[in-house]
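Milestone 3.1: sequence recovery, worked example.
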């Protein structure tokens, strides 16, 4: 009888899509922007808005935004920024102002309303906007800092951070500098019996006077 083909066991593939970032600039400032087609709208960190003094408007209906792996954030303001993504492409994007770990996010609302519609290629980290505009992105860095700049600033404001400086001790260089000092060499030469290169393997010989350290019980 025919033998049914067995389905080979393959390694489990990661279900998470790779994160894609683009570099955006406005009025001489540069920010890192996450491209997230799953995000309903576009968002910008309120710390970025404060730092660069970006004008904002009050939202008619405030809303609570829930980000993955982050706390819900209340959104009460929005702003418009002409964000330069390439030398020949600088669209005006509406951002909701929220507190989050990213500097900025462009989401499906901008992707859907832009004409011609952008084509996001996560494999190549590119955004194609018509035949003449290609925005080159980049993947998430594998060498992440323990804290982002925004997170560090928030902890400073809440008095949850301190500065610690660790100085490395290069013993070989310090020993080398001591051995080359002529004054030290003269002392070592005068007291060779006190500073031998190698300690003896036996007790010192008896002396005329035995020195004792009196211990108080």
């Amino acid at each position: 009888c025919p033998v049914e083909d067995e389905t080979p066991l393959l390694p489990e593939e990661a279900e998470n899509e790779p994160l894609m970032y683009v570099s955006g600039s406005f009025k001489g400032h540069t920010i890192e922007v996450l491209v997230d087609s799953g995000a309903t709208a576009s968002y910008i960190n309120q710390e970025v808005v404060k730092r660069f003094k970006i004008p904002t408007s009050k939202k008619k209906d405030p809303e609570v935004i829930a980000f993955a792996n982050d706390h819900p954030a209340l959104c009460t303001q929005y702003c418009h920024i002409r964000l330069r993504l390439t030398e020949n492409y600088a669209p005006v994007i509406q951002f909701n102002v929220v507190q989050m770990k990213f500097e900025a996010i462009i989401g499906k609302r901008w992707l859907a309303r832009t004409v011609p519609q952008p084509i996001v290629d996560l494999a190549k980290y590119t955004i194609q906007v018509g035949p003449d505009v290609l925005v080159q992105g980049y993947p998430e860095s594998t060498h992440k800092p323990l804290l982002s700049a925004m997170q560090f600033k928030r902890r400073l404001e809440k008095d949850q951070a301190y500065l610690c400086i660790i100085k490395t001790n290069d013993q070989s260089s310090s020993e080398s500098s001591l051995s080359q000092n002529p004054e030290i060499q003269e002392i070592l030469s005068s007291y060779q019996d006190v500073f031998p290169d190698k300690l003896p393997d036996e007790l010192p010989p008896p002396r005329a006077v035995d020195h004792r350290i009196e211990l108080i019980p």
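The helical segments are 46-51, 108-113, 149-157, 171-179, 182-190. The domain at 20-141 is CATH 2.40.70.10 (Cathepsin D, subunit A; domain 1).
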